[in-house]
Amino acid sequence: MILPIVAYGDPVLRKEATEIDADYPKLDTLIENMFDTMYGARGIGLAAPQIGLPIRLFIVDASPFEDDEDLSEEEQEFVSTFKKVFINARILEEDGDEWAFNEGCLSIPEINEDVFRKPKVTIEYYDENFKKYTDTFEGIVARIIQHEYDHIEGILFTDKLSVLKKRLIKGKLANISKGKIDVKYRMKFPMAKKKR
Q: Which residues are annotated as a binding site for Fe cation?
């Protein structure tokens, strides 16, 4: 089932999410709905706060990058099958020299900006079966994970922009929160006026 994606301005996007346990109600259905929602919006990642749930859960599917000519053949092969669920994730280490990449967000449609992130991340998490992992990821996969991880920490990619960039997009962000934007997927706007 495709769920509405919460838009910029909703307080849930600013909350540090809480951990869940294996008994979380209908977790399998929630994860399935999150993948449906992400694919319906043509995204590569989605965090639970983006559908209004302040819990430490996010999903990633890097396969849209499999044909990216900037990636090596080995990287293209890796991203083509990279689809994961991250529950109660904690980043243990971010490593390397920061690099810029143009990021967007399903909760902040039609705004894309270069964001600097480290190229390597070590993360501890549980999968959908509550099996625990500690893995290190690099490149585009690390970036997607860092972006989604920020969501469960109450951080948005726009927070990482310069003061000038933030000033330049301020009006666009206000319009998004008011629902003054045309998107091709279901959204929930925090400040949209209710029709009578």
A: 105, 147, 151
